[in-house]
Amino acid sequence: MEAVDRTGIALGIDIGGTGIKGAPVDLATGAMVGERFRLDTPRPAVPESVAETVGRVAANFAWSGPVGVTFPGVVSHGVVRTAANLDEGWLEVDAAELFGRVVDVGGHGPVRVLNDADAAGLAEVAHGAGRGQAGVVMLLTFGTGIGSALFLNGRLVPNTELGHLEIRGKDAEVRASVRAKEDGEMSWHKWAGKVEEYLSHVDALFSPDLMIIGGGVSKHPDKFLPLLTLRAPVVAATLANTAGIVGAALATGTQAE
Ligand code: BGC
User: Fold this and answer.
1) Are strands 155-157 and 75-76 parallel, antiparallel or unpaired?
2) 232 within 8 A of 207, measured Cβ to Cβ
3) pTM over 0.85
4) Ligand 1, atom 6: nearest CA belongs to which residue?
């Protein structure tokens, strides 16, 4: 086989509630190099099975080099602190060390593990809807939960967890996530009302210069963006379902917070 030059390329892996996806990413352009590879998230999503799946995703690319992995919870210095929508067996697990056992970092270790919304935010700020935007930028992802990423002049403040702000006595993601929309069979109109209430609260706390809406809904911005009235400018993410992979790869070039 011809030797492949992988300088400036990192493998990004995105752990979601239903799928674990990965692709090598060109760090200079943020573009995926080749096809994305996806496997189902194992059930139950306990650390050992998820790690095994992460290893299979890396093996698909015969990968040896820097690896970044997203996780849907608080990750501090590689250690998982919360896992609201995955499996509580993750609490206090050193995910960086665990994934380091199943992937080959080729001397570019350790594996960089970070919150999923933080990763998506890094990608959008570098190569998507937040590119070139100075000041306070926030990404809110709407899916099974609500994830958040906060940036000041392009620098991430990790693990903000604004999906768990309390609105009308309830966790915000229980009221306004896409799962809440589906479970409650809400119309776009009704859901947009809940999203607006939530985003107004976030706006009142942080006065962002730009709010970016990410997650699967960012593929249908016409369904809800026109229904929102907010002080801060609100736009849809542009990288959609690749933002996690791209951000995980980009994070290999940053310090673990
Ligand atoms: C978790 C966050 C995560 C978000 C999106 C929330 O329930 O607490 O850490 O970013 O879901 O997956």
Assistant:
1) unpaired
2) yes
3) yes
4) 145
Give 9-63 as a DSSP string.
EEEEEEE-SSEEEEEEEETTT--B-S--EEEEPPSS--HHHHHHHHHHHHHHTT-
Contact 187, 195 (CB under 8 A): no
Structure tokens at 127: 């190569």
**Dist. CA 122–CA 22, nearest whole Å:** 16
Q: Tell whether ligand 1 has an atom less than 6 A from the beta carbon of residue 162.
A: no
Type of residue at 151: F
- Residue whose entry in the numeric block shows the structure tokens 């093996």: 59
Site to substitute for ligand 1 among 79, 91, 140, 146, most atoms within 8 A of C-beta: 146
The tens digit of pLDDT for each residue in 182-226 reads: 999 999 999 999 999 999 999 999 999 999 999 989 989 999 999
Phi, psi (degrees; rounded to nearest 5) at 178? -70, -30
Judged by DSSP in three states, 84 sits in coil
Q: Measured from the CB, is residue 85 less than 6 Å from ligand 1?
A: yes
HSE, side-chain direction, 13 A CA sphere, residue 126:
24
| Distance between CA atoms of residues 219 and 186, nearest Å | 18
